[in-house]
Specification:
Length: 413
C-alpha cells in the first residue's frame, strides 16, 4: 500500500525551464511567430550539450511539457536544427505547417544535406537560413529557403541592400534579427525586411513548467486511442509494436483457456476481437501501468479503477458508464503513477465531459465513487475507521485488490 506521505511526495513535479521563446513581429508590430531557444536550469548551453541533444530536448519539452505558457508557442515556431538532427530518421515529430526549420551557420551544406532539405521541403516544411552570411556554399539552399534571417549588427545596411537586390527573384521573406533600437527598426523596414526580432521588440521569455515522462505521454496516447467510441485498431497495433512485453503478455492472456476458441490469436487485431473491446482496454491498461510503474503504485491505482467499476455495477449504472467509472478511477491516480496532477493530465486527452468533470470538478457519480475509494485507502494507510463508508464498499475494494494482485502474480509466471 502506498502511504499518504508517499502520495504527497510523488504527486508534485518540480517546475523547471522548458525553453525560451523570443517573438517575431511583422511590420505592423503583430507577433506572428516565435523562435524557440534551448534553456537548462543547470546553465549548460546548447553548444555544450550538443546541438542534436538540445534540439531533441527542446522539442520534447514543447510537446510534452505542461505549462500555462505553452499554448501561445504551439505554432508557428522557428527551431534551430543541426545537420545530424535533420539527417536522422526521427526528424521533427511536428506538423509541417507548425514549424520553420532554421539551418544554422555551422552547417556545411553538402549534396546529401541539400537533398534531405529538398525532401522535407516536398513534405511541406519551411526553412530559414539563420545568420545568413552570403557565402557561395549556401547558394544551393537559397532556392529551398522560405526565410533569410540577417543579423543586422553583423552586416552593414549597404551590404544587406546589395544582397537583397541580388536575390530579388527568389520568393523569400527577410527577417531582421538583433534589432535593438527604433532607428534600426525603421532602417530595416525601409530596406524591405518584413519580419523583425530583437531586444527592441521583445527579449526571450523563459517558459517554465513540468516535464512529463515519456511513459506518461505514451499512456496518454494509448488512452486517447483506446477510449474512442471506435478505436483505430491499426493505430493501436502500431502503438503496441513498441511494447513487446505488453503484446506478449496480452497474447498469453488471449490464448489462455479462459478465452480459447477455435484457434490461437496471432495478431493484435485478432487479440482485440477475441477479448472484446472492453476487456482489451482493461488488460492493455493493466499491463501498461504495471510495466511503467512500481508494483505498489500500479496495484493501488488499478485496485482503485476496478473498485470504481464495481461500485458502478452496485449502483446499477449502465454498461457504458461502467467503463467511464473504470477510466475515472485510473486517471485519478496519475499523480501516484507519474507525478502529474490528474486535472493537468486529462487536459491533454480527448475524453468525455463526464470523465473530465469527474477529474477536474469532482462532480458526478464517478467522482463520488473515487472519493469513497480514497477514503478506504486512507483508512487502510492510517489504520483508522472511516465514518459513513459502508462495509459493502470495503468488501468490494478488498475483492478488487485481491483480483489485481492475483493478476500481477499471473504476469510473472
Amino acid at each position: 500500500m502506498v502511504s499518504e506521505n508517499d502520495n504527497a511526495i510523488v504527486s508534485a513535479l518540480d517546475t523547471q525551464s522548458l525553453f525560451a521563446a523570443q517573438p517575431i513581429f511583422d511590420n505592423k508590430n503583430n507577433r506572428v511567430a516565435v523562435e524557440l531557444l534551448y534553456r537548462s536550469d543547470n546553465g549548460i548551453s546548447a553548444l555544450e550539450l550538443g546541438d542534436n541533444h538540445a534540439t531533441t530536448e527542446l522539442l520534447y519539452n514543447l510537446c510534452g511539457g505542461i505549462s500555462d505558457q505553452i499554448a501561445q508557442y504551439n505554432a508557428p515556431v522557428f527551431i534551430n536544427v543541426c545537420s545530424d538532427f535533420l539527417l536522422s530518421d526521427s526528424f521533427l515529430p511536428l506538423e509541417a505547417e507548425n514549424v520553420v526549420i532554421e539551418l544554422v551557420e555551422r552547417i556545411t551544406p553538402d549534396p546529401n544535406f541539400i537533398a534531405h532539405v529538398a525532401a522535407f521541403k516536398r513534405r511541406g516544411f519551411r526553412f530559414a537560413l539563420d545568420d545568413f552570411e552570403f557565402i557561395p556554399d549556401w547558394e544551393p539552399l537559397i532556392a529551398l529557403a522560405d526565410f533569410i534571417k540577417v543579423d543586422v549588427l553583423q552586416h552593414s545596411f549597404a551590404e544587406i541592400k546589395l544582397q537583397m537586390h541580388r536575390l530579388r527573384n527568389y520568393p523569400l521573406e527577410w527577417l531582421a534579427e538583433r534589432v535593438e533600437t527604433p532607428e534600426q527598426l525603421e532602417q530595416c523596414k525601409a530596406l524591405g525586411f518584413t519580419l523583425f526580432q530583437g531586444y527592441f521588440m521583445a527579449r526571450p521569455e523563459l517558459v517554465t513548467g513540468k516535464v512529463v515522462s515519456p511513459a506518461a505521454l505514451r499512456m496518454a496516447d494509448l488512452i486517447n486511442n483506446l477510449f474512442h467510441d471506435e478505436p483505430d485498431i491499426n493505430k493501436l497495433s502500431l502503438q503496441l509494436n513498441d511494447e513487446p512485453a505488453l503484446v506478449m503478455g496480452m497474447l498469453r492472456i488471449a490464448n489462455s483457456p479462459l478465452y480459447r476458441k477455435t484457434r490461437e490469436v496471432n495478431s493484435v487485431k485478432e487479440l482485440i476481437m477475441r477479448l472484446g473491446l472492453d476487456l482489451a482496454r482493461k488488460w492493455i491498461l493493466m499491463f501498461s501501468v504495471l510495466n511503467r510503474c512500481s508494483p505498489a503504485a500500479a496495484g493501488l491505482v488499478l485496485s482503485r479503477a476496478y473498485t470504481a467499476q464495481q461500485l458502478a455495477v452496485l449502483w446499477h449504472v449502465d454498461n457504458a458508464k461502467q467503463s467511464q467509472f473504470f477510466l475515472t478511477g485510473l486517471l485519478s491516480g496519475v499523480d501516484i503513477l507519474f507525478g502529474i496532477a490528474p486535472a493537468e493530465f486529462v487536459a491533454q486527452l480527448n475524453l468525455s465531459d463526464d470523465i473530465k468533470n469527474a477529474i477536474v470538478l469532482h462532480s458526478g457519480e464517478a467522482a463520488k465513487a473515487v472519493d469513497i475509494i480514497k477514503n478506504i485507502e486512507k483508512a487502510y494507510s492510517m489504520k483508522t475507521a472511516v465514518d459513513h463508508t459502508a462495509d459493502d464498499y470495503f468488501a468490494i475494494y478488498n475483492q478488487q485488490q485481491y483480483y489485481v494482485q492475483d493478476k500481477f502474480a499471473g504476469f510473472s509466471r
